Automatic annotation (TrEMBL):
Increases the formation of ribosomal termination complexes and stimulates activities of RF-1 and RF-2. It binds guanine nucleotides and has strong preference for UGA stop codons. It may interact directly with the ribosome. The stimulation of RF-1 and RF-2 is significantly reduced by GTP and GDP, but not by GMP. The keyword Nucleus does not apply. The gene is prfC. It is found in: Cytoplasm. This is Peptide chain release factor 3. Pfam families: EF-G_D2, GTP_EFTU, RF3_C. Its main location: cytoplasm. It comes from Novosphingobium aquiterrae. The keyword Protein biosynthesis applies. NCBIfam families: prfC, PRK00741.1, small_GTP. HAMAP family: Rel_fac_3.
Amino acid sequence: MSNRRTFAIISHPDAGKTTLTEKLLLQGGAIHLAGEVKARGAARRARSDWMKIEQQRGISVTSSVMTFERDGVTFNLLDTPGHEDFSEDTYRTLTAVDSAIMVIDAAKGIEPQTRKLFEVCRLRSVPIITFVNKVDREGRSVFETLDEVADALALDVVPMSWPIGLGGEFKGVLDFATNTISRPEGDSREFLGKRTLADDIPAAIAEEIELAQGGYPSFDLEAYRHGDLTPVYFGSALKNFGVAELIDAIARYAPPPRPQPSDAGTIEPDGKEVTGFIFKVQANMDPQHRDRIAFMRLVSGTFKRGMKLTPSALGKPVAIHSPILFFAQDREIADTAEPGDIIGIPNHGTLRVGDTLSENNKVRFTGLPNFAPEILRRVALKDPTKTKQLRKALDDLSEEGVIQVFYPELGGQWIVGVVGQLQLDVLISRLEAEYKVEAMLEAAPYDTARWLKGSDAALKAFTDFNMATLAKDRDGDPVFMARSAWDVSYQQEKNPELVFSATKER
């Protein structure tokens, strides 16, 4: 199991995450051409951005899984959406990783979405390697960037490399471990593999390096794996500086599969029973076949193709005949999988986000919540005869975590809830592209939603007086549709025996 490294890349949009993903895959031998980044139009995207709206906008809005091997180590890279509107999908993806790479733009430093994603990692003590990108462009001083990471994120920082000049003065990146410099080559000033010993560094840079090596702590593996320290690498994903060192760092320092929390206590990866959990469901990855893939993080045991596992929501065993290993939308059948691996399980709606799969059905993994939506809209069909197709589409997309869907107890129009505006654009785009359903979104009279928890008697009493503001989610659980935050507080005060929850854990 020690040769598995399951990690995610987190960043603010435009910090270079997608480009770095592509270069990691290139270095790992998973792809053989890096031309997509330089190309124009539809080709200007990494292989992980396969959805139509992603191709049009040049952004990642869904999490992809890519598995590759290098020097005997199996890397499972989970590419997460950088856009803040998809924070819920990203949060769930981060429950499935053992470490993360945080990408920071050398000129902009720590941006809001980076900070949010970092906090999610901190909640789960996910260790982080920092990659300061775009050092071949004009940027802030290296010390300023390091100090910001230390101060804003309350982390010890340890520079593992150092840029020799920034922007127009960029002469390469010094690797402290080998005392060699990766230098720009050719007209495009890329790193093509030639390293030279660090013997002609400008005096000003040499002074910086001396200060850095004396002023920051030494790398401490235990502190890093505990989430208290971050090793910092400098480079340019576009020009290929620092990427090989980053892969080496993940292989050398990032933890192997970690134990996972469950209602039966912590489940260790060396346990004999096969267990795992579903952190993502994706429909229509292959539009030709209308497929539906559940992504499972294997927690313990050795999975073998064809074995029977019991999903917690179903209660009866299911034989898994065609488990999949991914390279973005390319795939191959997995005969075996080890803890830390991510496998795809084709299914027709039987597996949902948050489900635990196990041989004995005696364990439930915890910590995969839904969050209260921040934007609510009514869905109106342009063609009323497509009601059935719309219901299917909304169920599918809510299962994936793209949206949440609420069915009001009174009134016909269904309501969708999202964290950000871009999710609504994705909803309309995918309804049309994948389900051939044209729909419009109209303002809803509600501001937010809260899941109701309490005794049957308390729920019935509340329902009798508030039917007009009640809905069911796709699980059939009761939801209070609130017109304002004040509305939530008022009802909470009036009904102390009920819990109005902003999260729902599966």
